TrEMBL record:
<feature type="domain" description="L27">
    <location>
        <begin position="10"/>
        <end position="64"/>
    </location>
</feature>
<keyword id="KW-0796">Tight junction</keyword>
<keyword id="KW-0472">Membrane</keyword>
<dbReference type="InterPro" id="IPR008145">
    <property type="entry name" value="GK/Ca_channel_bsu"/>
</dbReference>
<dbReference type="InterPro" id="IPR036892">
    <property type="entry name" value="L27_dom_sf"/>
</dbReference>
<dbReference type="Pfam" id="PF00595">
    <property type="entry name" value="PDZ"/>
</dbReference>
<dbReference type="GO" id="GO:0016020">
    <property type="term" value="C:membrane"/>
</dbReference>
<feature type="domain" description="Guanylate kinase-like">
    <location>
        <begin position="301"/>
        <end position="503"/>
    </location>
</feature>
<dbReference type="InterPro" id="IPR008144">
    <property type="entry name" value="Guanylate_kin-like_dom"/>
</dbReference>
<feature type="domain" description="L27">
    <location>
        <begin position="65"/>
        <end position="122"/>
    </location>
</feature>
<dbReference type="InterPro" id="IPR004172">
    <property type="entry name" value="L27_dom"/>
</dbReference>
<dbReference type="InterPro" id="IPR001478">
    <property type="entry name" value="PDZ"/>
</dbReference>
<dbReference type="InterPro" id="IPR036028">
    <property type="entry name" value="SH3-like_dom_sf"/>
</dbReference>
<dbReference type="InterPro" id="IPR014775">
    <property type="entry name" value="L27_C"/>
</dbReference>
<dbReference type="InterPro" id="IPR027417">
    <property type="entry name" value="P-loop_NTPase"/>
</dbReference>
<feature type="domain" description="SH3">
    <location>
        <begin position="228"/>
        <end position="298"/>
    </location>
</feature>
<dbReference type="InterPro" id="IPR020590">
    <property type="entry name" value="Guanylate_kinase_CS"/>
</dbReference>
Length: 519
C-alpha cells in the first residue's frame, strides 16, 4: 500500500482523506474499470455523510460536553400543557403529536437519567429496628420488577424454618449473588414468616413490586460452583407446569412442547431440573421434571388398559385397520435390497406349503419356553395352544445383511429396543378422525383371526371406536418414545411421508438418547 501525502498537515480530517483517496491511488491502478470502482465507492454520498457525522461526534466528545438541563422530560410536559392553551395551528398540532409519542418520551427519560447519572434503583432506607446482637442476620434488598425473583422456598421438616430450596439460574436472586440455597428466611418487607406457610410467603412476594427487603440467616454450607458443561435435550412430551400437581412452585415452572430444544441449566436437584428454551434471550431458567422423575411417574401411572404379551387373537392389542401392514409392505417392496423383515418363531406344526425359515421358524414348545426364560424374545404370545414370537436374533439377522429392519411391535416393547445395538427410529402410525375412518373404510374389510378360516368381515362402528381409543391410549402412555407420528388419512400420502422420513434418516442428523453415547 503506497504512502498517502495530503499536504494538509496533521489537521487533515478523515473526510478530506476519503475525498483525496481515489486521486492518490490513480497512479497505482492498472485498469480503468478498477479506477471507476474506486471512484464509485469513495464517492458514495452516504459514506461521506457517515464520515462527517463521525468527525462531528469525535470533535464533540473531545469538548467533554455536559447536559444543558437534567429535566428534559418535565420540560416537554410543561411545553405540551402550554401549547394546549394556544390556538391550534398545523405546526402546534404536529409538535404536540410528536411530544406525545412513546419513543420520544422514552428518549427524553433516558436523556434525564444519563444527565443525572442516576443509574441505580432507588432503595428505601435501612430499617432502624435491627438487633445488633444478631451477628448472623443479613438484610438484603432486591429490586423486583415484573419478573419473578427466581427462588423457591420450603419448610424444613425438622426445624420448621422457612429456607431457600433452590435458586433459579439467571433469575433476579441468582444475578444478585446475595441469596443462597439453605438460607433461612426470617422476614419479608418487615413481615415475620416463622408462622407462615410457604404458599402464604409466595403470595406476599407475588404482590410485591420494586424493592423487597429480606431478613435472612445465611446457610453455613458453602456452595461449590457448578462445573456442568452445556447440555441440550429434545423434549419428548408436552409439559404445562400449571397442570402439574407435583411441581413445588407453578410460577417457577417452564412450559414446553414435544420437539422443543431445551438447554439444561442445572441438575442439582434430582427431581426438578432447571432449563430454558434454546436461543431464549431471557437468562432466567425454569423448573422441569427430571428425566428420572418423569420416567418414574410414567411407570407408576395406572394404565387405562392392561397390556399383556402379544396375543394373536387379540384385536385390542393394537389399532387394527390403521394401515400399518400395508404401509410396511409398500416400503419393503420399494427397495427389497435396503429393507427387510423378521421371520417369526412358532411352535405350531409346519404346513405342507410352508418352508422352515421362510414363513416361520418352527421350533419345539420346550425350546420356545427355554428361550422365553432366557429373554430371547422381543414379543411372544399364545394362540390355540401354540406359541408365536419375534426373537432378538431375528432382528440381528436382518441387520447383519446391512438392511433396515422393519418391525411392528407393541408400544410397551419399544423401550426395550431403544438401545445402542438396535438404534431404532420409532414411527407411530395413527388413525385419522372417526369421520374419516367411516368414509375411507366403509367398503373395506377386517381379517379376523378368531377362527381357522381367517374370514374377512366389514368394519363396524365398534371397530372404529376401538381404533381411536387404542391410538389415544398408546399416544398418551408411550408418545414420549415416538420419534415421529404419521396420520394415515390417505394411504398414498402417508406412504410418501413414510418413505421421505426413511430417506432423510440416511442423511440428516437426529437426536438420540444420551445413554447410547455411554453404552
Amino acid at each position: 500500500m503506497p504512502a498517502l501525502s495530503t499536504g494538509s498537515g496533521n489537521d487533515t480530517g478523515l473526510y478530506e482523506l476519503l475525498v483525496a483517496l481515489p486521486a492518490q491511488l490513480q497512479p497505482h491502478v492498472d485498469s480503468q474499470e478498477d479506477l471507476t470502482f474506486l471512484w464509485d465507492v469513495f464517492g458514495e454520498k452516504s459514506l461521506h455523510s457517515l464520515v462527517k457525522i463521525h468527525e462531528k461526534l469525535h470533535y464533540y466528545e473531545k469538548q467533554n460536553p455536559v447536559p444543558i438541563l437534567q429535566g428534559a422530560a418535565a420540560l416537554a410536559d410543561d411545553l405540551a400543557e402550554e401549547l394546549q392553551n394556544k390556538p391550534l395551528n398545523s405546526e402546534i398540532r404536529e409538535l404536540l403529536k410528536l411530544l406525545s409519542k412513546p419513543n420520544v418520551k422514552a428518549l427524553l427519560s433516558v436523556h434525564d437519567t444519563v444527565a443525572q447519572k442516576n443509574y441505580d434503583p432507588v432503595l428505601p432506607p435501612m430499617p432502624d429496628d435491627i438487633d445488633n446482637e444478631e451477628d448472623s442476620v443479613k438484610i438484603i434488598r432486591l429490586v423486583k420488577n415484573r419478573e419473578p425473583l427466581g427462588a423457591t422456598i420450603k419448610k424444613d421438616e425438622q426445624t420448621g424454618a422457612i429456607v431457600v430450596a433452590r435458586i433459579m439460574r439467571g433469575g433476579a436472586a441468582d444475578r444478585s449473588g446475595l441469596i443462597h440455597v439453605g438460607d433461612e428466611l426470617r422476614e419479608v418487607n418487615g413481615i415475620p414468616v416463622e408462622d407462615k406457610r410457604p404458599e402464604e410467603i409466595i403470595q406476599i412476594l407475588a404482590q410485591s413490586q420494586g424493592a423487597i427487603t429480606f431478613k435472612i440467616i445465611p446457610s453455613i454450607k458453602e456452595e461449590t460452583p457448578s462445573k456442568e458443561g452445556k447440555m441440550f435435550i429434545k423434549a419428548l412430551f408436552d409439559y404445562d407446569p400449571n397442570e402439574d400437581k407435583a411441581i413445588p412452585c407453578k410460577e417457577a415452572g417452564l412450559s414446553f412442547k414435544k420437539g422443543d430444544i431445551l438447554q439444561i441449566m442445572s441438575q442439582d436437584d434430582a427431581t426438578w431440573w432447571q432449563a430454558k428454551h434454546e436461543g431464549d434471550a431471557n437468562p432466567r431458567a425454569g423448573l422441569i421434571p427430571s428425566k428420572h422423575f418423569q420416567e418414574r411417574r410414567l411407570a407408576l401411572r395406572r394404565p387405562e388398559i392392561l397390556v399383556q404379551p402379544l396375543k394373536v387373537s387379540s384385536r385390542k392389542s393394537c389399532p387394527v385397520g390403521v394401515g400399518l401392514n400395508e404401509l410396511k409392505r409398500k416400503l419393503l417392496i420399494s427397495d427389497t435390497q435396503h429393507y427387510g423383515v423378521t421371520v417369526p418363531h412358532t411352535t405350531r406344526p409346519r404346513r405342507s406349503q410352508e418352508s422352515d425359515g421362510v414363513e416361520y421358524i418352527f421350533i419345539s414348545k420346550h425350546l420356545f419356553e427355554t428361550d422365553v426364560q432366557n429373554n430371547k424374545f422381543i414379543e411372544y404370545g399364545e394362540y390355540k395352544n401354540n406359541y408365536y414370537g419375534t426373537s432378538i436374533d431375528s432382528v440381528r439377522s436382518v441387520l447383519a445383511k446391512n438392511k433396515v429392519c422393519l418391525l411392528d411391535v407393541q408400544p410397551h416393547t419399544v423401550k426395550h429396543l431403544r438401545t445402542l445395538e438396535f438404534k431404532p427410529f420409532v414411527i407411530f402410525i395413527k388413525p385419522p378422525s372417526i369421520e374419516r375412518l367411516r368414509e375411507t373404510r366403509k367398503n373395506a374389510k377386517i381379517i379376523s383371526s378368531r377362527d381357522d378360516q381367517g374370514a374377512a368381515k366389514p368394519f363396524t362402528e365398534d371397530d372404529f371406536q376401538e381404533m381411536i381409543k387404542s391410538a389415544q391410549i398408546m399416544e398418551s402412555q408411550y408418545g414420549h418414545l415416538f420419534d415421529k407420528t404419521i396420520v394415515n388419512d390417505d394411504l398414498a400420502v402417508a406412504f410418501n411421508e413414510l418413505k421421505t422420513t426413511f430417506d432423510k434418516l440416511e442423511t440428516d442428523t437426529h437426536w438420540v438418547p444420551v445413554s447410547w453415547l455411554h453404552s
